[in-house]
Amino acid sequence: MAAVSAMGSLAGANPASAAQPAKRAAAAAAQNDKAWFAFVGTYTPHGLGIHRFRVDRATGKLDALDPVQGIENPSALVIDKTQRFLFSTSEVKNYNGTTNGSVSSYAIEAGTGALHPVSTVNSQGAGPVYLSLHPNGRYLLVANYNSGSVAVLPVGEDGTLRDAVSMQAPQAPAGAGHAAEGVPGSFAISDHDGPHAHTIVPSPDGRFAISTDLGVDRTYLWKFDETSGALAPNEPAFVAASAGAGPRHVAFHPNGRWLYEVTEEASTLVAYGYDAQHGTLTQMQSVSTLPPGYQGTSFASEIMLSHDARFIYVANRLHDTIAQFGIGANGQVHWIGETPTGGDYPRVIRFDPSGRFLYSLNQRSDHIAIFSADKASGKLRFTGNYVAVGSPSDIAFAAV
């Protein structure tokens, strides 16, 4: 499939992969006559629930609207491709008399961005922390951190969630308490006491899924049955991370040939070659997300690709920076620089629908800092704009 040249153009691309940026641009153009809204998940009670904002497309500023209350710890959000429905975790361990969490769906009201409850179901595990939608739109994938399980929830055409059709909870020995690849002086140790699923995402073609387990230092590879929604272990079933690294989040390159992973304890960015036919990974590179010479503790948290897929951004907690990397023609990355987040403990970073503005959710500072992204260099510049949100944990955008 497509390869990205040193200048960032798509070379040797098949029509599907080459069309990705064009499709995104066309979709953005179609949204110009619609209002943009941002939805921010939080940890309650410090946060009020799902906070709602109207987005100023020219400046990236967020203007607060009434929040949606009554949901506990809506820590992860995702919006379907029709932008009619929002899905949210409730990161708890006591849903409806069980030891599990839950996932809820909401209808997004056109013109106002108001959220109307549709359904709530068991997440099939404790502490759900991540959601993703299958490309066919019929399944929602959820990672449950505390129980180490991943599950598949069917989605109806009206946004109604149904009970899980598949759940996997692979067992493995706990990972090392200290990251072998950690920077000097690091005391980054967290939850290497058993399985802790942190992410699950479908492959671009929907035939496979990738999940990470921070607690056992594994990236799991799954076969995905698009008819039934069933997950089954692939062959091989996992890729082992370096000892104590703590695989956290992943992102596919739109060319379908590369996958990038950020590790929490080691604070590394790992580049993999992805075999789309077999759903397997081959490590190409592992680099630090921290600047040369850094010593001390930091926890990498999030990874994002720029809309044109020429750059990668990684958030570092405690170091409180956003590292910027360029992507070479072979899929490997190179350091560009770093930008302070303007706050404490950036849990999530996200681009707005245009790709012009990047939002850093600084969890311990109780705010979101807004940056502009230079499309030529990949560098970030603080816009001077903040918005106050208690314990922000995720942000999703819709044009309705």
Automatic annotation (TrEMBL):
GO terms for cellular component: cytosol. Residues 1-18 form the signal peptide. Pfam families: Lactonase. InterPro entries: Cycloisomerase_2 (IPR050282), Haem_d1_sf (IPR011048), Lactonase_7-beta_prop (IPR019405), WD40/YVTN_repeat-like_dom_sf (IPR015943). The keyword Zinc does not apply. GO terms for biological process: glucose metabolic process. One of its GO terms (molecular function) is 6-phosphogluconolactonase activity. The keyword Signal applies. Gene3D superfamilies: YVTN repeat-like/Quinoprotein amine dehydrogenase (2.130.10.10). Keywords: Carbohydrate metabolism, Glucose metabolism, Signal. Belongs to the cycloisomerase 2 family. This is Beta-propeller fold lactonase family protein.
